[in-house]
């Protein structure tokens, strides 16, 4: 273990030094959910103008981000986007010591990894470490449709520039209006507080993905992209594997693969998306995990939500899914 720690520390410092000497603008993304989707959407949009390096797959740990920097960062890159994951207190702060982000986006704060964090307060403090790390001339972006993020946007921080985005309020810096969601994607009007607007179309499923897109558009606009460039990037954004990924199955069956991870808010959003599809709707789930003492309660609630949107529920693992079954039965499923 001491030898491994020494090797990791050298690897970390090498990446830290390489990134510090780069011209690339550094963007950090964190949240309880939506990080990976936001990262790839943002990378696609910013590529309309800049040479962008995005951490691959779900690389969101110090060693994963260091590997990306050491192996892939070059002098050509104008922007580096790092996804920042956390399961324990201090995880985001460590990633910020590596990346030293100038721009930061907080996609959400919710009840994920409660088993390791211990409390929602610890989750809030850890996620907010990204925003606290930003320099005075940087910029912070908050999902105003997430209550905790909206509350955090009002806190005093060193960073002088703060933007709030979303779909629920007209006074947001960047928002979406005239939203239409369906089984083939979504359309909406992207609107900025300066009066700029443009019609957009995306193949991504679900209203929560529109919120992710709007956050990415807010950063892109702040970084000098035109609304036309942003709309072009949005149209090119592709679903992320295992995150509301639409797969065409045999015999005309549509499969929505949302199997990567889950939390109460994300599961609800996935089921709402399922409800937009015609025909017989089937849910296959082992339930939610790593929710600590609230796991049973949240899975019971999940049963109630499944009852609203599905015709058939296949519960994988008898013992763990018992609360889901209880919720389904109570809902008259």
Question: Could you characterize what this model shows?
Answer:
The chain is an alpha/beta fold. It is built from twelve helices and 13 strands. The chain has helices at 2-20, 35-46, 62-72, 91-99, 114-117, 120-133, 147-152, 207-222, 227-236, 264-274, 295-309, 322-330; strands spanning 25-30, 52-54, 79-83, 103-106, 139-143, 161-166, 174-182, 185-192, 197-202, 245-248, 254-257, 282-285, 312-315. The strands form three sheets. The protein has a nine-stranded mixed β-sheet, sandwiched between helices. Strands 10-11 form a two-stranded antiparallel ribbon. Helix 10 runs parallel beside helix 11. The chain is globular.
Please write out the topology.
Blueprint: H1 2-20, E1 25-30, H2 35-46, E2 52-54, H3 62-72, E3 79-83, H4 91-99, E4 103-106, H5 114-117, H6 120-133, E5 139-143, H7 147-152, E6 161-166, E7 174-182, E8 185-192, E9 197-202, H8 207-222, H9 227-236, E10 245-248, E11 254-257, H10 264-274, E12 282-285, H11 295-309, E13 312-315, H12 322-330
Parallel strand pairs: 1-3, 1-4, 2-3, 4-5, 5-6, 6-7, 12-13
Antiparallel strand pairs: 7-8, 8-9, 10-11
Helix pairs in contact: 1-3, 2-8, 2-9, 4-6, 10-11, 11-12
Order of helices and strands: HEHEHEHEHHEHEEEEHHEEHEHEH
The DSSP helix count reads 12
Strand content: 15-25%
Average pLDDT, rounded to a whole number, is 94
Low-pLDDT residue spans: none
The number of strands is 13
Radius of gyration: 20 Å
Overall shape: globular
Helix content percent band? 40-55%
Termini distance?
A: 51 Å
Largest sheet: 9 strands, mixed
Structural class: alpha/beta
Q: Name the strands of the widest sheet in spatial order.
A: 2-3-1-4-5-6-7-8-9
């Amino acid at each position: 273990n001491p030898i491994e720690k020494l090797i990791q520390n050298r690897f970390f410092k090498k990446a830290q030094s390489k990134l510090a000497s780069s011209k690339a603008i550094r963007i950090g993304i964190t949240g309880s959910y939506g990080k990976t989707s936001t990262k790839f959407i943002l990378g696609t949009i910013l590529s309309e103008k800049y040479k962008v390096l995005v951490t691959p797959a779900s690389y969101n740990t110090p060693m994963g981000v260091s590997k990306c920097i050491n192996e892939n960062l070059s002098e050509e890159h104008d922007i580096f986007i790092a996804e920042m994951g956390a399961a324990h207190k201090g995880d985001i702060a460590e990633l910020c010591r590596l990346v030293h982000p100038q721009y930061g986006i907080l996609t959400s704060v919710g009840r994920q990894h409660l088993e390791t964090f211990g409390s929602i307060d610890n989750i809030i403090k850890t996620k907010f470490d990204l925003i606290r790390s930003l320099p005075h001339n940087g910029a912070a972006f908050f999902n105003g449709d997430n209550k905790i993020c909206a509350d955090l946007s009002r806190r005093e921080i060193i960073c002088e520039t703060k933007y709030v985005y979303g779909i629920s309020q007209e006074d947001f810096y960047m928002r979406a209006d005239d939203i239409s969601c369906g089984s083939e994607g979504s359309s909406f009007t992207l609107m900025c507080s300066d009066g700029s607007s443009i019609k957009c179309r995306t193949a991504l499923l679900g209203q929560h993905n529109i919120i992710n897109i709007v956050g990415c558009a807010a950063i892109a606009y702040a970084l000098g992209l035109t609304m036309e460039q942003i709309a072009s990037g949005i149209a090119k954004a592709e679903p992320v594997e295992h995150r509301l990924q639409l797969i065409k199955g045999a015999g005309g069956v549509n499969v929505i693969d949302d199997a990567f991870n889950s939390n109460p808010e994300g599961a609800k959003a996935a089921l709402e998306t399922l409800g937009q599809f015609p025909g017989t709707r089937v849910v296959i789930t082992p339930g939610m995990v790593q929710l600590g003492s609230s796991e049973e309660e949240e899975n019971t609630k999940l049963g109630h939500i499944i009852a609203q949107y599905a015709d058939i529920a296949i519960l994988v693992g008898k013992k763990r899914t018992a609360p889901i079954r209880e919720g389904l039965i109570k809902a008259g499923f």
